[in-house]
Structures are given as structure tokens and as C-alpha cells.
From TrEMBL:
Pfam families: OmpH. Gene3D superfamilies: Skp domain. It comes from Limnohabitans parvus II-B4. This is Outer membrane protein chaperone. Coiled coil: none annotated. The keyword Signal applies. SMART domains: OmpH. The lineage of its organism: Bacteria, Pseudomonadati, Pseudomonadota, Betaproteobacteria, Burkholderiales.
Amino acid sequence: MKTIRKTLLAALLVGASALTSLAQAQDFKIGIVNTDRILRDSNVAKAAQAKLESEFLKREKDLNDAIAAFKQSAEKFERDAPTLAEAQRVAKQKQLIEQDRDLKRRQREFQEDLGARKNEENQMLFEKAGRAVKQVAESEKYDLILQDAAYFNPKHDITEKVIKALNASVGK
């Protein structure tokens, strides 16, 4: 009889503990943020992209023009090579090799500069997004915000709220 009472008492304690945990879990508020959407859909991200495009547009156009001119020179050399004197042909070939080397260097520098600027802009965007996430979490009393979960119930997705908060902070 005493063993049954002890077992029953233990079961009641476990049940009460489980109910308490369940009640606490219901108060636990979780949100999920999709960073890809923030990087794609927020006005801050679009402004950063436009800024980068305007900053590098002229340089990219100049580089593309130089590449097109080099291709034309190379094609002209291929056509004219059989009729050129040996010294002219060798000089023109060296010139084209030097131009090709210069163009590749300029392309590499362009890509490195563009990549560095993209990283700078993304870093600023992530900082602003982090502040927006914190603002939403504090104002709506979230206990936990996760980023880019493999799966989540859409009712926990607060990405749109974060994007709105981020867009609202643009003027500030």
C-alpha cells in the first residue's frame, strides 16, 4: 500500500511538473527571420545595391569597352598577321599580350574592389537588420529570435515585421 502511495505521489509530482512546464512553454514566444528575404526585399538592401551599381557602373563600362577594343585588335591581328613583316607581327603580338595581361589585372582589381564594397554594404545592412530584429523582439516581447531555420511554422516568421522596421529606420 505504501509503495502504491509513493508511486502515485511521484506520478502526481511528475504530472504537475509537466503541466507547469507546458504553461511556461506557452508563454515562450519564438520568431524566425529569413535573412535572404531581408537582403532581397528591404529598401535598405535595394538602396545599397543601387549605390554599388552607380559607384561601379562607369568603371565596369570602361572595362567592358577596353575588352571589346582588345577583341577587335586581336581579330584584326589574326586577319593581318600573314601579311605583316616578321618584326611587325612580333611587336604587335607582344603588344596584344601586354594588353591582355593589363585587362586581366584590371578585371581582377575590379572584382576585388566590388567584392570588398559589397562586403562593406552587407556588413552595414546586417548591423541595421540586427537593430531592427532587436527592436521587433523587444516591442513584441519575443523570448527567442532564430535566423534561417531549416524548417519552421510560418506563424513564427517575423521577417516582414523586421523589413518594415528596417525600412522605417532608413530616414533616421
